[in-house]
């Protein structure tokens, strides 16, 4: 005789499994998990990249030079916490950011396929059309994820630099506070959010820099998804044995390549994003040599012209080497974690 309670439990379990097995739900969950894991792994490099980006040759003497010297300086001045500074706010941001990104990509694919038809799947342009579809869906996911989580990105940037030497020196130069008070500036996520909201124009302050961010993130995510999916298809197509999944090493390699290609392509916009995010911070750290060395950026185009004029073309790629050290393992971990969680939820 069948136990009625057992049947109820089995039915409920089946419903739960079907819910999490839905591609839309599983991609949302897997994306969030993948984002948190990848960002924590590369937190020291993420902070180092931000510090490099906001050091301006036009306004401040560079106090952080080179990857190893900078990591050493961070360790000596702040210890282990220096490596993890801003990672809490980054994880709070990256979980919904990555979740929205992957789920929007998954949900939008059928609709994008209708908008960009491919009448000849075996034709010479089939690969290009498929890549265009992937880039469009990925770009849409990037735009949506930025819109949802941008204030947390701004707060994370502020937290990342305010305890670094450049942040403390700039604050000393731009405030009447005694040195003992300046060293007490590190604040929590909520405190910084309230401070920006109250003193920098409300929501406008929290979304400062969102235009260059969106311009950079949309193609980054699009290129990242397109390159990874292309490499995935290529690996499976050229495999000597019929299989549906790449190996772990292949996933890591494909993620690393896709991340490196995408980040190098859009890096100048990442520099602009960081500059705009700290432009209204107290002190002289925000003096990037704009308006003849004594002002702030008034637009994205003005920022680009000012950076090139005062720092050369290299200013648009300040921190790229440190960022690649972060992006390569980060995207490798992201794609591996995403596919791993998706496999679990599909069971």
UniProtKB/TrEMBL annotation:
<dbReference type="GO" id="GO:0005743">
    <property type="term" value="C:mitochondrial inner membrane"/>
</dbReference>
<feature type="repeat" description="Solcar">
    <location>
        <begin position="22"/>
        <end position="111"/>
    </location>
</feature>
<dbReference type="Pfam" id="PF00153">
    <property type="entry name" value="Mito_carr"/>
</dbReference>
<keyword id="KW-0812">Transmembrane</keyword>
<keyword id="KW-0677">Repeat</keyword>
<keyword id="KW-0999">Mitochondrion inner membrane</keyword>
<dbReference type="InterPro" id="IPR002067">
    <property type="entry name" value="MCP"/>
</dbReference>
<dbReference type="GO" id="GO:0055085">
    <property type="term" value="P:transmembrane transport"/>
</dbReference>
<dbReference type="InterPro" id="IPR018108">
    <property type="entry name" value="MCP_transmembrane"/>
</dbReference>
<feature type="repeat" description="Solcar">
    <location>
        <begin position="246"/>
        <end position="344"/>
    </location>
</feature>
<keyword id="KW-0496">Mitochondrion</keyword>
<dbReference type="InterPro" id="IPR023395">
    <property type="entry name" value="MCP_dom_sf"/>
</dbReference>
<comment type="similarity">
    <text>Belongs to the mitochondrial carrier (TC 2.A.29) family.</text>
</comment>
<protein>
    <submittedName>
        <fullName>Mitochondrial carrier</fullName>
    </submittedName>
</protein>
<keyword id="KW-0472">Membrane</keyword>
<keyword id="KW-1133">Transmembrane helix</keyword>
<keyword id="KW-0813">Transport</keyword>
<feature type="repeat" description="Solcar">
    <location>
        <begin position="129"/>
        <end position="234"/>
    </location>
</feature>
């Amino acid at each position: 005789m069948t136990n009625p309670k057992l049947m109820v439990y089995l039915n409920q379990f089946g419903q739960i499994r079907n819910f999490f097995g839905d591609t839309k739900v599983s991609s949302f969950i897997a994306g969030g998990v993948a984002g948190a894991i990848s960002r924590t792994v590369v937190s020291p490099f993420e902070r180092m990249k931000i510090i490099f980006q906001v050091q301006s040759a036009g306004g401040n003497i560079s106090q952080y030079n080179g990857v190893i010297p900078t990591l050493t300086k961070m360790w000596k001045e702040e210890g282990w916490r220096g490596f993890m500074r801003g990672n809490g706010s980054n994880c709070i941001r990256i979980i919904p950011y990555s979740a929205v990104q992957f789920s929007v990509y998954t949900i939008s694919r059928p609709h994008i396929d209708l908008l960009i038809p491919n009448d000849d799947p075996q034709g010479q342009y089939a690969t290009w059309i498929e890549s265009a579809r992937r880039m469009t869906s990925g770009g849409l996911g990037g735009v949506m994820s930025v819109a949802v989580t941008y204030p947390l990105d701004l707060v994370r940037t502020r937290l990342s630099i305010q305890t670094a030497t450049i942040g403390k020196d700039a604050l000393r130069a731009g405030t009447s506070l005694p040195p003992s008070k300046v060293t007490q500036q590190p604040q929590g996520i909520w405190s910084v959010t309230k401070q920006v909201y109250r003193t920098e124009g409300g929501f406008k302050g929290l979304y400062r820099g969102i235009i260059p961010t969106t311009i950079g993130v949309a193609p980054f995510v699009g290129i990242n998804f397109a390159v990874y999916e292309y490499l995935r298809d290529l690996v499976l197509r050229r495999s000597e044995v019929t299989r549906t999944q790449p190996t772990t090493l292949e996933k890591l390699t494909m993620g690393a390549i896709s991340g490196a290609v995408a980040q190098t392509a859009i890096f100048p916009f990442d520099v602009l994003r960081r500059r705009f995010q700290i432009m209204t911070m107290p002190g002289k750290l925000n003096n990037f040599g704009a308006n003849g060395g004594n002002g702030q950026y008034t637009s994205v185009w003005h920022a680009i012209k000012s950076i090139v004029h005062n720092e050369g073309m290299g200013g648009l790629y300040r921190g790229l080497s440190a960022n690649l050290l972060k992006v390569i393992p980060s995207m490798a971990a992201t794609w591996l974690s995403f596919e791993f969680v998706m496999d679990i939820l599909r069971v």
